[in-house]
Design brief:
Radius of gyration: 19 Å
Helix content: under 10%
Strand content: 35-45%
Largest sheet: 4 strands, antiparallel
Structural class: mainly beta
CATH class: Mainly Beta
Number of helices: 2
Distance between the termini: 31 Å
Shape: globular
CATH architecture: 6 Propeller
Order of helices and strands: HHEEEEEEEEEEEEEEEEEEEEEEEEEE
Oligomer: single chain
Number of domains: 1
CATH superfamily: TolB, C-terminal domain
């Protein structure tokens, strides 16, 4: 049987993608989604798919064996171009940029829920948003838990307590910002040694209010770019002297270019560009820092170049984007 998610597929053109889709549909009895209409958009006039880059590598599939996934939910990349991916089994699996499996480890517990966020701090430690255990875990790149660095672990409204933790980033001063949703939609700030500094945000749809802040990234000025996922927007926040200020809000609910539907992740590319992963619209949008959409690609499906509930995106040292195609239990790599 032809494996749709093979790791040695290297299309050179849009024609190659379509030929692969035909062959895949024939051998696997999957619907030929690349040739069908999605809503009112056909392949011929679909700006989102036809203007997008063609994947040069697609790897991963459903399963429990090493290198396979059960709904992967977060991804990060280190300075050595090693990809870290966590899925709903609580495994953090490590790969090279071609999808070769390198190693793995397990988070301590998954009975009440699984991690939904990953990051890397200034010391090169892997930070895991252990969502349903209300904490941030720190690991070496070899998977050794650094228990002394754990932040949180208790559910509640008080200092040192959290709701469902979604992400963590570290600024240029060594401070950690931790996002959470559920009972509290907010951001908390801690020192490099885990001491509470301040917190801001609450549930709502006004500026400085959130509905599931899922992902954060810091720019060179330490401004926080936050995917306010269930408000279908991105909030950019400056937090100088522990006084948060909204710089701009990008997006809004919808399917049109420049709008979002459940933005779950983002990647800041240099000083100019922004890539947004839309879990709900099954696509990637490329925007400038003012929020003007430059390009969008992807639509729901299982063929190469299509996406199903994508969750995360990273960029490697060669400028290639790696997209965590969660609903398809795979990673798609594109050169931009």
């Amino acid at each position: 049987m032809l494996d749709l998610q093979t790791s040695d597929y290297h299309p050179r053109s849009r024609r190659d993608v379509l030929k692969h889709a035909v062959r895949t549909a024939f051998f696997t009895n999957l619907p030929l989604v690349a040739f069908s209409q999605v809503g009112c958009v056909s392949l011929e006039d679909s700006a989102s798919l036809s203007s997008g880059p063609v994947p040069d590598r697609v790897w991963g599939q459903l399963g429990l064996a090493d290198g396979r996934f059960q709904k992967p939910r977060a991804m990060t990349i280190d300075v050595n171009d090693e990809l870290y991916i966590v899925d709903k089994t609580g495994r953090v699996q490590v790969f090279d940029v071609d999808g070769k499996f390198l190693r793995l480890w397990h988070t301590p517990a998954i009975e009440t829920g699984k991690p939904t966020g990953l990051g890397i701090d200034r010391d090169g430690h892997i930070m895991v948003a252990d969502t349903h255990y209300f904490r941030v875990l720190f690991y070496t790149t070899r998977g050794e838990l650094i228990e002394s660095k754990t932040i949180g672990g208790t559910n509640g409204p008080d200092v040192g307590q959290f709701a469902f933790v979604t992400d963590v980033v570290q600024d240029s001063q060594g401070n950690y910002f931790i996002s959470e949703y559920g009972e509290f939609d907010r951001i908390q700030k801690y020192t490099s040694d885990g001491q509470f500094i301040c917190r801001f945000g609450e549930s709502g749809d006004k500026p400085l209010q959130f509905s599931r802040p899922q992902c954060m990234m810091l720019d060179k000025d330490d401004n926080l770019w936050i995917t306010d996922s269930c408000n279908h927007r991105i909030q950019v926040i400056r937090c100088e002297h522990d006084q948060p200020e909204v710089i701009k809000i990008i997006g809004g609910p919808g399917e049109a270019i420049g709008q979002f539907r459940y933005p779950y992740n983002l990647w800041l590319d240099g000083d100019e560009l922004l890539y947004v992963v839309e879990f709900g619209n099954h696509r990637i949008q490329k925007l400038n820092r003012n929020g003007d959409s430059i390009q969008a690609w992807g639509r729901p499906g299982r063929a190469v170049g299509e996406l199903l509930q994508p969750w995360s995106i990273v960029k490697d040292s060669k400028g290639r984007l790696h997209i965590l195609d969660t609903g398809n239990n795979r990673v798609q790599r594109v050169t931009i």
